[in-house]
Amino acid sequence: MYSHGDGYLKINTYAGAGLLLIAFIVVVAAVVLSLGCADDGGTGVNESVDAHTLNNGTELSGQWDGSTVNTSTGYYFSVRLEENPSTGYQWNLTTTDGIKIVEDEFEPPENEDIVGAPGFHVWTFRIMDNETQQIDAIYKRPWENVTGEEDTFSLALEVEGEPVVPADGDDVEYIYGTANVDNIEIMVMESFPVQVSVQATGNLKDGCTVIDEANITTERTGNTFNVHIPTKRPKDAMCTQALEAFEINVPLDVYGLEKGNYTVDVNGVQDSFELQNDNVIE
After folding, report:
1. What CA–CA distances, in Å, run from 151 to 8, 78, 81, 109?
2. Phi-psi category of 31—alpha, beta or left, where left has phi over 0 and alpha has psi -120 to 50?
3. Residues 83-123: pLDDT tens digits?
4. What's the CA angle centered on 30, arms 29 and 34, to 5 degrees?
5. Taking the domains of the chain in order of start, what are their residue ranges?
6. Which chain regions cross the lipid bilayer (predicted)?
7. CATH T-level assignment (fold) for domain 47-165
8. Which residues contact 70 (CB under 8 A, 6 or more apart)?
9. What pTM value is reported for the model?
């Protein structure tokens, strides 16, 4: 028998408050749990980057640890991981046969006056073969045994395309990198259909490094053109350390594009242009 007296109402109020408190605790716990899953916990893991497409010339950080990316043969990319050789620790990196290390260098800390400050170990790779490729690295002192507590980095690559067959001696004699582009200028010719090219200027890091024109790539994703300008220099060459200025013009395939605004990204430097009309002859 239900009663509407004071005693019943008081008990029901407490019960409702208790249910609300429980619901609030559950919501808070769910939020905390979701944040905990998103946090990398100091390992550099970021689940949200899984199954991304790896474009030519991309640089990856430790946040890509444990990820799988889709990419193509012939592409260059780099991985940058924090390293502190002053402690004796260093990254020991291995790859499957379909990935070639074309450059391996250590970048010291920006402020070298700070004793013990970490720098970055940077590897540049070229994808030589298709199917599944793998990169694995472990951070440890070389003379110590593996305990399972070390920091690690792994990256899986699902690769499409034909295997790369390098020119005789080309990959043996040269080290490849990415051009340091300081400025780009987009040139739109007054013609119809419209022709567009991008002029990139910058500096090469020494007297032996040149633009690897044969491997310049241009890809369009939506309204963005991604242009990658690589470099090469002979291995073991004695090079002057003075910067060498460069200027190079790269044509863009704009025929058939609809009118609108388009972005051009050349090694991380961006600019844009506008097509006033659909760029096609009817």
Report:
1. 60, 19, 11, 20
2. alpha
3. 998 888 989 888 998 998 888 888 888 776 676 788 899 99
4. 115
5. 1-36, 47-165, 174-275
6. 12-36
7. Immunoglobulin-like (2.60.40)
8. 51, 52, 53, 54, 157, 158, 160
9. 0.50
